[in-house]
Amino acid sequence: MNLKKLVMIMMVLAFALSGCYLNSEVQANEVGVQLESNKIVNCTTPGVYTGWGFWDDLKVVSLNTLTFVVTDPEVATADNQLVGVGITIQARRNADCESVTSLLTNWSALTSDENLIGVITATALEGIKVGTRQFTLEQLLNDRNGLSSKISEGIEADAMKYSTTIVNVTVSNLDLDDEYAQMMQDKALLTAEIDLELRRQDLIKQKASNDKLDQNQRAEVLAQKLLAEQAQTEVDVEIASREGKKVAANYEVYTLNERAFQLEMVKRYGEIFGDKSVFYFLEKGTDLTLLFGNNGIVPVQTPE
Questions:
Q1: Residues whose CB is less than 8 angstroms from the CB of residue 85 and which lie 6 or more positions away in sequence, other chains included
Q2: Which of 7, 202, 207, 283 to pair with 192, CA 20 to 30 A apart?
Q3: How far is CA 213 from CA 186, 203, 207, 210, 220, in A?
Q4: How many alpha carbons fall within 13 Å on the CB side of residue 237?
Q5: How far is CA 15 from the centre of its chain?
Q6: What is the CA radius of gyration of the chain?
């Protein structure tokens, strides 16, 4: 080995042992932490960095959002029903320098995604047990968001210790006991049948109400018609009354004027017996013997 190669090897070893870094890159979804003699001196934004100092180092912390599922196959509800609960968690390390410094100083193992998921999972399993116990099974089925909130409370408080934010917790699955699931299905079918019957009864009531309304309307129409007929009858009676008065007035002259009465009688008899008939009128109270001769009527006085 010649001297030149030996010098190059020594330089590489010296560079490696010194801990300095050359053109180290911090990605857009990362934060860089610069160290001198194993002490944090600065947090960097994404970019390319080089450190020439003795024992200089650059740690990179991922800021990716981690999404993972935590499942507990058997937990008890408030009404002692056993269910399986599956939740989906989204978590992300905090990006500010103080949080990153705390993470590297106190929880350096959690810069590994796998380790961080493991720690959150352990806390989530406890949160599932505690949260589920606060709900009956029916409440869980109707309010998954409520269970998510209860589980989040426990996880978030623990995650703050290691500079991590719980972005979201969602109850993704609830596994019911087969017997209870069948009972819930039967209940749902019964509820649907009851709803159908209630709607049918509502339709019957509505139809009865409509029929009653129609009946009332018909009664009102008949009442109005009756009033109209009564009014017409009153008009007809009034007309008849007036006609009667008119006729009475026309014939009143015959009561007051006997000659006029006699003339009207002649006219009427003429209409009955013909216009060639001859009528004779005798004064009231006269007792006569009618003799028919050539000269017509001969009145004979009645002896006193």
A1: 71, 72, 75, 128, 132, 147, 171, 173, 174, 175
A2: 207
A3: 40, 15, 10, 5, 10
A4: 6
A5: 73
A6: 61
**What does the domain layout of the chain look like in residue ranges?**
3-62, 66-176, 257-298
297, 286 Cβ separation under 8 angstroms: no
Give the CA distances from residue 13 to residues 7, 10, 18, 52, 253, in Å, rounded to whole numbers and listed in that order: 10, 5, 8, 14, 160
pTM: 0.53
pLDDT digits 0-9 by tens, 74-131: 898 898 888 899 999 999 999 898 888 888 889 989 989 999 999 999 999 999 999 9
From CA 49, how far away is CA 33, in angstroms rounded? 11
- Specify the fold of 66-176: Tetrahydropterin Synthase; Chain A (3.30.479)
